[in-house]
Design a protein that fits this description.
eight-stranded antiparallel sheet; two-stranded antiparallel sheet; 10 strands; globular
């Protein structure tokens, strides 16, 4: 991946309203929606969604959303209508919203979902699946997990280059998902 692309992603993250700040291992809160525990030091970049990285945004990005309500989108893109969450969605519709959002932001991404399964998201019944797509010739893999409760969506998405960085951080992401705490 070119340094220019990595620099551009970092600039975009900073432009989304966030300073880059180190976050020590431990509990991380996503507003009042849920929390999770990290075992490694992450850097916080941007605030909407809350973005975290260890190796840099282009090499691994954890994005989190809490309490999305009907009509909310994962990412705003000026001049483009983005897929929105609806309170009647089930897990499969959320997966479609995630893939449609990525494809709207990354032309030609052609996102594939795999390994769809139920998972505990804190005390809630949740879901988990993997994604695969190509960004500027680079294969990307990701893990998505979340839950729908009271018509609201809590979600986390980790994506990284398929070669090396995804496998490097997959165990940490598994620990994060297993550590989610959500109010009953």
């Amino acid at each position: 991946m070119s340094r220019a692309l990595a620099f551009l992603i970092l600039l975009l993250a900073a432009a989304c309203g966030g300073d880059i700040s180190k976050m020590p291992p431990g509990e991380q809160r996503i507003g009042s929606a849920y929390s999770f525990t990290t075992s490694l030091e992450w850097s916080h970049v941007g605030s909407s969604p809350q973005n975290r990285t260890i190796d840099g945004p282009a090499l691994g990005l954890l994005q989190t959303w809490g309490g999305l309500k009907s009509g909310d989108v994962l990412i705003e893109k000026q001049g483009r209508r983005m897929p929105a969450f609806r309170s009647g969605f089930g897990a499969l519709e959320v997966a479609e919203m995630v893939t449609d959002t990525i494809e709207a932001i990354i032309p030609g991404a052609d996102v594939e979902t795999t390994d769809f399964r139920p998972v505990a998201f804190g005390s809630r019944d949740g879901f988990r699946f993997q994604i695969r797509f190509v960004r500027k010739g680079l294969p990307i893999r990701g893990i998505v997990a979340g839950a729908i409760h009271d018509g609201r969506l809590d979600l986390l998405l980790f994506s990284a280059p398929a070669e090396h960085y995804f496998d490097l951080r997959a165990a940490e992401i598994d620990r994060i998902i297993a550590s989610v705490k959500a109010p009953a």
